[in-house]
């Protein structure tokens, strides 16, 4: 997608949520970030989307480790600067085995959080609490706020092959909305300290 189209897409998305104060930032590798506005209301997820997410998760869960690792490898390949955010990965002389163990452990933790969020879709207060606290911890790990939104698109690309037979635009939108909601609360937590 051309840079212009991507900016347009971001701006259109921002207008749809009634937010006309977001400002667009473009990084060196042409990622587009919308400046976070903590006053903005939380993204919506419809009942139909909750159903889709739960159905998909039942299928994807079998390959949870694979999906998690592919998401992170994709993230590091497309955004090498994110790699440095992982303090533990900066340890000098980390062997390949240790490195993959760290990668796998972190990927599984993220997948565990997705699992918790799917079940907390029926209790949005708990989802908010979980992700806001997660955001506060990520701030303490010195993770940049703008990196948080990069996770969703990588995750979606890695689950698609596992759901090939059922995947539609509706599925894409449901997962995009879930990550938007998770990241919204994480970023809110990060901004609160
Ligand atoms: C939706 C996105 C993400 C979720 C759900 C998530 C989830 C988690 C979880 C569950 C942990 C374990 C420790 C804890 O609970 O505090 C963790 C640790 C951590 N995360 Fe994330 N994370 C996300 C995105 C990111 C991104 C984009 C980065 C890097 C730029 C990152 C960097 C870290 C670091 C540095 C740690 C601590 C050290 C480590 O475990 O290796 N996270 N994350």
For the biggest sheet, the summary is:
2 strands, antiparallel
Alpha-carbon distance between the two ends:
36 Å
Strand tally, please? Answer: 2
Average pLDDT figure: 81
Q: Which sequence of SSEs, written as H and E, runs from N to C?
A: HEEHHHHHHHH
Structural class: mainly alpha
Q: For this structure, what is the CATH homologous superfamily of the largest domain?
A: Globins
Mind telling me the CATH class of the largest domain? Mainly Alpha
Over all CA atoms, what is the radius of gyration? 17 Å
Number of helices: 9
Write structural notes for this entry.
The protein is mostly helical and 193 residues long. It folds into two domains: 1-35, no CATH class; 46-191, Orthogonal Bundle (Globin-like). The chain has nine helices and two strands. The chain has a two-stranded antiparallel ribbon with strand order 1-2. The radius of gyration is 17 Å and the shape is globular. The termini are far apart. Mean pLDDT is 81; it is low at 6-22. The site of protoporphyrin IX containing FE has 20 residues, from helix 5, helix 6, helix 7 and helix 9. Belongs to the globin family.
Please outline the helices and strands.
Blueprint: H1 3-16, E1 24-26, E2 32-34, H2 47-60, H3 64-78, H4 80-83, H5 96-119, H6 124-140, H7 145-148, H8 151-159, H9 169-191
Helix pairs in contact: 2-9, 3-5, 3-8, 6-9, 8-9
Bound molecules: protoporphyrin IX containing FE.
Family: Belongs to the globin family.
Pfam family, one: Globin
Keywords: Heme, Iron, Metal-binding, Oxygen transport, Transport
């Amino acid at each position: 997608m051309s840079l212009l189209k991507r900016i347009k897409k971001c701006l259109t998305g921002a207008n749809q949520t009634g937010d006309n104060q977001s400002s667009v930032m473009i990084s060196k590798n042409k990622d587009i970030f919308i400046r976070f506005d903590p006053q903005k209301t939380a993204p919506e997820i419809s009942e139909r989307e909750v159903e889709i997410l739960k159905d998909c998760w039942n299928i994807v869960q079998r390959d949870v480790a694979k999906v998690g690792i592919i998401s992170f490898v994709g993230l590091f390949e497309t955004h090498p600067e994110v790699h440095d955010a992982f303090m533990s990965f900066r340890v000098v002389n980390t062997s390949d085995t240790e490195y993959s163990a760290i990668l796998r452990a972190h990927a599984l933790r993220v997948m565990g959080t997705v699992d918790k969020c799917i079940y907390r879709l029926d209790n949005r207060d708990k989802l908010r609490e979980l992700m806001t606290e997660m955001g506060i911890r990520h701030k303490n790990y010195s993770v940049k706020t703008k990196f948080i939104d990069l996770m969703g698109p990588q995750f979606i690309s890695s689950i698609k092959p596992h759901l090939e037979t059922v995947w539609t635009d509706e599925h894409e939108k449901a997962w995009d909305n879930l990550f938007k909601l998770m990241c919204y609360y994480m970023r809110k937590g990060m901004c609160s300290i």
